[in-house]
Amino acid sequence: MKLHKTFLLSLLLIAFYSCKNTAQVEVDQQAIINAEPIQVALENGKAKAYFASGCFWCVEAIFESVEGVEESISGYAGGHTKKPTYEASNTGRTGHAEAVEIIYDPEVVSFKTLVDVYFASQNPTQVNGQGPDKGSQYRSILFYQNEAQKEIILNKKEALAKTLGKTIAAEVYPFQKFWIAEDYHQNFERLHPDHGYIQNVSIPRLRKFQAKMPEVLKSKH
Question: Residues 52, 55, 152, 206: which is the catalytic one?
Fold first, then answer.
């Protein structure tokens, strides 16, 4: 009987601390959502934008196909922990989502167009994931650096919701910090074109987007 009581007490303590930790995570995450956005300064005339939309292998290649985009870097954003890793992010407990940093020329492509690209390259109604990738680490998030960007994002969400007659799943966060992912994630689609995931998920997603918005693509010559 004593052993049974000890076992029950252990279960209660585990449940208590689990609830406590979950509550703290929610508080930490809410602080991220309510924070003031950080404006990233131009570097050599280039601006930066940040988006999360499922697997960053897919998203990186999509944005790099757009005229005016110089580079797309895979990483993590939107969470409450510091220095997230791929393994930690995949637990769903860091609050981070797989994200990309878009380095672009604002004289060639506008933030508004990048937002259009963002929504045209995904299923905007899928919650916590894109395609076969499911979990909070694959959720869709648009990060704004100022009120003008926030207004562009919200207007696009509202218009898209009216057009589709459905709720748009993408979350809207003030930009705080982008953590660059491990080296082996960078340019993954270009470096590993025969990888099974790239062949079956990334490339079809890229081609579907390119068919939707051919006017924004880089010329092939």
Answer: 55
Q: Mean pLDDT score of the chain, rounded to an integer?
A: 90
Fold of 35-216: Peptide Methionine Sulfoxide Reductase; Chain A (3.30.1060)
Ordered alpha helix ranges (H), the chain: 2-33, 56-64, 86-89, 111-120, 147-164, 188-191, 196-197, 203-212
Domain boundaries, the chain: 35-216
- Looking at per-residue pLDDT, the higher value among 43 and 1 belongs to 43
- Identify the weakest region by mean pLDDT among 16-20, 46-50, 85-89: 16-20
Distance set, CA 41 to CA 8, 44, 112, 146 (Å): 56, 10, 18, 12
CB 145 within 8 A of CB 40: yes
Active site residue 55: yes
- β-strand pairing of 129-130 with 47-53: unpaired
- Is residue 23 within 8 A of residue 166, CB to CB? The reply is no
How many Å is the maximal CA-CA distance in the chain?
A: 79
Buried b (16+ CB within 10 A) or exposed e, 166-192: eebbbbbbbbbbbbebeeebbbbbeee
Cα 28 to Cα 14, 32, 95, distances in angstroms: 21, 7, 9
pTM, two decimal places: 0.86
CA-to-CA separations, 178 to 38, 48, 84, 164, in angstroms, rounded: 11, 11, 10, 31
